[in-house]
Records
---
Amino acid sequence: MQEVAVETWRDYCLRNNSIIVDIFHGLLKSTLVCPDCAKVSVKFDPFCYLSLPLPVKKERQMVIYFVPHDPRLRIRQVRLIIVIGTKPLQL
């Protein structure tokens, strides 16, 4: 069984060679037993134990079109940068 794990890890490292894999990746051993015939199936799956926070934008750019009620006035485009969490009255 250990030979299968070593071979699986070697093949995985050939495709994913990095210091991150060396430090944060490993193999998960799964064993299934058939309830009818008692055949045992063993599988090794690579996993990563590295959780990174995703960056969150703190601002959002919006384009607003001001359409005057008076048809003689032209439509104006206004670009706004809004800080996420800002309430409408704070604008």
---
Amino acid sequence: MKYLKAGRCAAAIAGTLFLVCPAVSAHHATAAQYDVSTLVVLKGVITRADWVNPHMRVYIDVKNGSGNSDAWTVEFPSPGAAVVAGLSKQLLAVGTTLTVEAYPAKPAPEHAAPSRSACAKAMTLSDGSHFAFVVGI
């Protein structure tokens, strides 16, 4: 009976670690994925905003030099940190025009398509409202 309890305890611990570890390992330092020595300025229109942990994702269409739109994915802080910074779902609604200062993703491997993703450092809405984010480097 004693061994049965120990086995159940070990199984419970292993199960908990299995569920928790992927979430922990999924979090990263900004410099691991983004080029923090470079800033890009993206002006575009929000097409989607995902208020999810550990980081929000805002999708924007940005006009390129040819006049066509490029779809960008911009990582924002966690939903809680975004609210503390003054953001809301209404401010990041689909159709909102904004300008984002962001760290671009590091170059993709040679066989991959160029990445159009970035990590937001600051954001300005069309009315001039400015929001700055603390980015963990």
---
Amino acid sequence: MRTAGAFLGLALGLLLLGPFTEAGEAPSASIEIVASKRAFTPETLTLLQGEPVMLIIRNDDEDLHAFVPLLLLQHTNVQVSGNGAPEFNETGFVRVLIPPRGRTELRFTPKTTGVFPYICDLPGHNMRAQIVVK
């Protein structure tokens, strides 16, 4: 009985911690990016350094798209959910492939200020937008 109680406590703890960011805070902003007709909308979005955020990337097309944030998420803890296929390397999050009519959520806390382009790197897509971190 004691083991069952400990297991239940651990399970509840994990459920409560699941939606939080690296700093243990709930995202202060939820921002949606839409990939449609070979373009990202919005073309520019603004985040605040040190403020947890959830980016929702939605693919409204019948084609596969990629979300590739250049340099923004290097050495940053990124929690990925949804039906996209994320890719990581030694510096961290690299990109996520989002299936047609799919959706991916990225939770992270921006560490560095600046202007960071993001692209779809699939051949012929030529999709580009930017994230400004203040």
---
Amino acid sequence: MPIQKFAPMTKNFPTFDCDAHVTEPPWLWERAKDWLSKDEYEALKNTIWYDAESQQLIVNGKAGAGIGSQRIGGSAGMVNVLSLAGPGLKHDIQRALNVRNLNPKTALTREQADYIDHKGSYEPKPRLRDMDVQGIDQVMIIPTDIDTYPWLLNAVGAKAMCKAYNDWAFEYCQENPERLYFAAMLPMQDPKFAEQEVYRVAGKGCRVGLVRPIDAMGNYPIQPKYDRVWRAMEETGVVYGMHPFPAFGSLKPPGYTEQHSGAELISLTATTSGLPHSFLINVQDFQAEASLWVVMVLMSGFFDRFPKLKAAVFEASSTWLSFILDECDKNYKLYRNERRLRPLKKLPSETFFERCVTGFEGDEAPPSRLPEFYENILAWSSDVYHHDGDDAWRAIDTMRKCELPESYQAKFLGGNARKLYGIDAPKKFIADRVTEIERPDWWPTEEEVKWSLDPQASVRH
């Protein structure tokens, strides 16, 4: 059988992956009755329900909603981008598999698609095995269908969905509580429900409450009505986890015309311009939502009102942050005398450095070239198992090429995240890279991978 080989590497510190994903499996709904009251269960069925017979997610009465988190096991001729990036599934390999699927004669079979549908995306034991190969000692798991949940119209149904997911995620993490941690979903449709869920999940040891920074149904998440949620986070130590996403808007109610996200404008621009590539949607969407939120909370005095609250900016890269913080500082100094809000207690950049971290991915080199700026605010994110995910060894390789001292590597790849979340380092950690993975006979050869990277390889003939 083919052997996929990797260069030997070692590390001298434990890693913490602050943003990796799970895909919400069908049995989350099958088991929901175990976790919910009768009224909550009925509200869940009427608000967001996975129909096993048709294999569709039904949201607000609309079938076929969501981005397919519940599709598990693989389908012939398809690559599931939500559960793809497991050990060794580097982007060049993904490209080769996608090129195969362009031709019915070479397209993946059901069994082959199942092989690359990584079960750790929805089962904990396979994930722990994958983490051992990927150099990931500890991880914070985050759900996938992030563009769906803010649009749930029934607040009780939203509460039920969050409760069901959080209890499933908690059970998932019990396989190894020293290595697996979950970020909780919060029903922001109703501030009281969200507050109650913060206290409930904090009792289960949860460290992060997830909030999507969009104005879905007029609910931008720094409005005064949410003050009770932030006070609950201060009291419990739960971190405000801000996670952006592409703004597909497929669940916007009929007649709702308000723009809910800067990412929505980017998606519209890409679509109406007929751009054949998803670069704008896949990259700028995340940064648009994140940068707007950062400016809003820093310039509004949000953190002055909640002096114990801490926050994490997830999946938005980090290179843009230095520019944003510099502009916020300049703007505040220049216009502070015209400000109609209370004066800030500190410069925006100082507040961010004290209270926040920002995620970054392993192929980002700029942070390694600016270690003094990022020293205490950078936290590595693998984004596994989504298609753009990669392992800790990729991040370490990027840092070493930039000649970043190991003390910074240890902070960026785990120390800063553990400090923010109040999590102890594991008693043991992965020191050596796994250098060989046995693959099936149909695995792409080096020649096929090289050929598939030619732009012409993806042109249908």
